[in-house]
Write a structure and sequence with these properties.
Four copies of one chain form a homotetramer. Chain A is α+β, with helices and mostly antiparallel strands and 379 residues long. Helices cover 25% and strands 27% of the residues of chain A. Chains A, B, C, D: Keywords: Hydrolase, Metal-binding, Zinc.
């Protein structure tokens, strides 16, 4: 049975001086032949189910054959996860500034080109070690050398990023508002999406927009591109560049279900088995039709009116063109107007998630849908 | 086909001067032999399903044989129903003062005794008309003669109460957070609870605590008591005192479901048929086991710790003593403490509702349960 | 120089398991001849200035001659004081339930009568010790013996009350929204109000409504009344019944000013010197006109309309009848209505506090004023 | 006396169907020789003082000699200005999405280059008219031709932008949290900053980041640059390119002061007189030292710890290097740590604004300061 260590990382202080901490669990493999793994959950306050998945992963990993180090971080953002707003948890952004907690990671592309020039002839091992050291140093600089200080979210994000930079594979566990399971997957890692028990995959471009997944794969992808420009070819997802990051959307926010969490932990272990992190043949992906969609075609539909919404469309099933996604009740119009308004789209779509409340303003995001979807090719 | 009229009542103004209004729908019966009815919905901001029930009632009532006047008021509290708080709707209390929107109605018991003395020998018709006029005048005084003004909630409550005072039967449509259907029923009206398709009934004492149901039945109940003290006997629920008020809890907040709303509308029509408000034999209550519980035995269970809750107990089924209602995840304890904590009670209970979010502070209300329940006797 | 001890009391847990604690500072006097003192601050989240006053009291008390024990508790409610809501702190009530944090203390009047009968002939020392023990036991029962648990606020309140019950004099440091300094003083303790450097005193009846000041003086006052009914006479504020509690309103919320806090600390020391808690003649009350008003005459004025308010009336000065307290801007009426609306009252009043924001709904509390004020008689 | 017209523009709907509207006031000059003007206020919910300034402008402009058309829009964003959050107004961002209301305007730079090529030889009048028409058409397309709808904020922003595009000069009236008066001024319009009675000017680069000021001057500035590349030279701020936009920060949020508003209205009239919009020599800028700072040097200082802040630095005065901006109270450290922590910077700075509350988390923005300031050269 594998043992893990537990450390506690301090990430924030509140007005009373109360310190907010994050537990960090680490398995260290004696036979570290596979890619190292970093898994975190609950960067967004209301998206708590990932903590239950980490609970189940800790239970299961103690009985696996480990080929690499694995670090797991539940409650990654205790500032957000403790921020109750009435009965609910205020979640996706810093309530003081409005900045999305998952858009505060750091990556400065300008360091890539010089590094690639200096290491054009270096060994893969040197590239791996020194590039990682460079990235880590970037973060240390941000954390420690700033007379103006850091925002609340930067302080948290940079500390998590420092942990994540020590891994090759990064899984950031999130949820939607009311949502099906879906996976954010970099385009180059599309083949890996077949190993998660998740029927919907969003293929994201290899650009940095501040999120954890991007912050961890973009440096490597940029480096691979820079080497290629200078004539040294590597393939993303293989060898030195066997680096993959995913945002795993586990379903709906504001919910803990430990039984479903076990299924999701098993799904993650199937992926880790595929990548050689563990050697336990019992963890295999389920057979299912997996749909994919490019990020550009992942469309939000905004409410054409204020009102109260009866969400009709089922998640994960194709909804025919013209069929209603929702009907909006407008009692103020009853008797002298249209009390029910149906919302539909002009093409078949796969609904992925919808807004968390029936009450919407004009312009509230009602649904997100795969607008041009296709079956994910089996790898 | 019956026609209704629609009026618009102004109940509030916001900082920009925007006026908030409430639509008031009225059916006037030519054959007004039965008790008049007042139905409102959405006094609490997030409890929107009652609006859909009123939609379905308006659809169905146009095709009923009416024996009395019926007034229906959706969006009863637009200040609350428009108050978004992040993604959700802030619901049960005025967000500036913390006062529950459904504790602001008015009843001054001191007017009862003098009235009963003056009307000890009056005809039932005079009592009915003059007592109603007295109650209405009380409200008019509150609305119009106060140099210090009214709170936001009083202004709304008193205007609704003015409408409700013109009826004999009052239904206030609410929901719980995440909840089964249940009914708040005055103890004297217990027999009527058998005519709603609602399996759980809370029997409330005949006391005034500021809510709409109490504000409408307590004056009549107090009057009946006062007459009795002077030797003139009436029976609550019959003849002159055929006055009943219920708070109907339709299920969970933050949801609109027009199909379920139709079921609830049909359930309400079965009760109205029983009371002689409509003459449509097709509306009959369903056969079901109905459980009841006195308000004193309706217990809230508060979380013994902060954490993330996996709610386990099913609503509406008896949970054996010692069986877990919930398990609380505490990842910060994983590895060096108890990561899972089970919550149970010492007696069999019927869980009725639970908190709306998995994330709780120490002391957050987890569940409400029927702690000493019994089968509601058939009438 | 006096030394103090510091203990840390655990009062709550958040969703991540983070514990919230309260520091408790205690001076123990070797010469404990005077009444013991309990001072707390920041029970309401946004009312932070009391923490600065406790800072200054700790600085000054180390250099005083102490005749009694003094306990000081800043950050009394860390759940509330850490609850940021956008830029501001959500303050006066539990944001989940709406219940005012300062209405959750416990007092069960039914224990008084039996105690007074049992102790009708007891010595003053026995009465003092045993009544205190009874009160403490009541609180212990609430904290420890409840299968349904406690609300978040009860757990905090009862722990603070346990500390306060060990003292004879209780000061609960609060602030208004935007406010002058004022003092809530029980009617029987009116003479003591002259020893604070606070120009406005509210005389409150001797009734329990859930607040800390009431929770600490009402038991003693009720006991004194019960003894009197049985023919044993004591005077409140003297001897055995030298028990006084005040809510000290230090000015406006959301502000820390350490210099002003020093003035307020000195004002409190003048009162403590008067009561014999310290023997330092340098602490004397300032000469000033002190106005008083009965709680019944402390009137809130609610906005007659939604709009944006230019608060005109100065605090603490008499405003003549008919003079405007505020003018409300309604730009939506400019050009075709009244863009400015003036608000005034029919009598001279002393404005004490006003709402924290210019933007109000119809029915928002604009001002609180002394409506029938008088000069506080010098003692 | 000039007359104005008033129109009402519908900008949003809430859950109850309530419509939110914006009043639009227009003066049309018979002698339209000067640049047309657009002034709006209250795009951020809590920043209400601009409404009072528009009130005073409406009062004064009726008595001016107008040489151009002027449009004034108070309550520009009623969704935000009506969004109370407890006692305060939630202000700078959409509370559902976190997106800053003043970052949702539209500008697509890609239309500039083709236009400049087509109009390289056109008359100034044709350029002016057709470019304005092009910009307006861009906005119309956004408003009317989108099957996925618009966000709440886009719908508001685009409607305001449509009005602003008809003007040459745009003033967007804002406030800081607790703040001195300051002006956001495009670098090319620096000379104009001398005509406002505002002692602090931020010089912003000519880039588009989504704000109203940028959205209105950037198209013209980009066009001027595009012409210049092709050899046709114009000067920004003159002739055809006499287009200027400013964000005017009027002081602190959550406050209305009609007297101060009159001063600010007079200051704006001095600028409008300078630009030839009005011909009233009595409106002249005050003599004062005006400081300026480039946006890059406008620094936010983030709190190094959670705590309660006593803001010490005065606005608008140079604070010497090393002098404290603030002291942070940490009572939890009293007795066994540092209870007071002083915050200072390494250079002389001019403090411009600070956070709205004393209670801060670690990482909350404490102050914004001019870090490298200089005297604004007189024009």
């Amino acid at each position: 049975m594998n043992t893990f260590t537990k450390k506690v990382m301090s990430v924030g202080e509140m007005a009373s001086g109360a310190k907010l901490t994050v537990p960090v669990y680490s398995f260290v493999s004696e036979n570290a032949s596979g890619p190292n793994v970093y898994i975190q959950a609950n960067m967004h306050g209301a998206e708590v189910q990932g903590n239950a998945v980490i609970f189940q992963l800790l239970e299961l990993l103690q009985h696996c054959r480990l080929n690499a180090n694995i670090t797991l971080v539940p409650y990654a953002n205790p500032v957000a996860c403790n921020h109750k707003n009435g009965e609910y948890t205020l979640g996706r952004f810093d309530p003081i500034t409005g900045v999305n907690w998952n858009r505060m990671y750091h990556f400065d592309e300008s360091v890539i080109e010089p590094f690639s020039q200096n290491y054009i002839d270096a060994t893969e091992e040197d590239i791996n070690n020194d590039f990682r050291a460079l990235m880590l140093n970037e973060i240390e600089q941000k954390l420690d050398h700033n007379i103006f200080g850091l925002t609340t979210g930067q302080r948290i994000a940079y500390q998590l990023q420092r942990l994540a930079y020590q891994a090759d594979i990064v899984l950031d566990l999130h949820t939607g508002p009311i949502s099906s399971k879906h996976l954010y997957c970099p385009e180059y890692a599309q083949a890996s999406a077949n190993y998660f028990d998740i029927p919907h995959t969003l293929l994201i471009p290899n650009d940095f927009d501040g999120a954890m997944d991007e912050a961890t794969f973009c440096p490597w992808w940029s480096l691979q591109q820079a080497f290629e420009k200078q004539g040294r070819k590597f393939t993303m997802g293989q060898g030195l560049f066997n680096k993959e990051s995913f945002t795993v959307e586990l379903g709906s926010q504001e919910q803990i279900d430990l039984d479903v969490a076990k299924d999701d932990a098993v799904s993650i272990l199937a992926y880790l088995h595929y990548k050689g992190v563990i050697s336990n043949d019992e963890y295999q992906p389920q057979a299912m039709t997996r749909y994919a969609c490019y990020l550009n075609d992942y469309k939000a539909l905004y409410s054409p009116m204020g009102g109260m919404v009866d969400y009709l469309a089922e998640f994960g099933e194709v909804l025919a063109a013209g069929e209603p996604l929702a009907r909006i009740l407008r009692m103020d119009n009853y008797g002298d107007g249209e009390a029910l308004h149906y919302v539909s789209l002009d093409k078949p779509v796969i609904p992925i998630l919808h807004f968390a409340s029936a009450s919407v303003n004009q312009g509230t995001e009602l649904y997100k849908v795969f607008y041009n979807y296709f079956e994910l090719p089996e790898s």
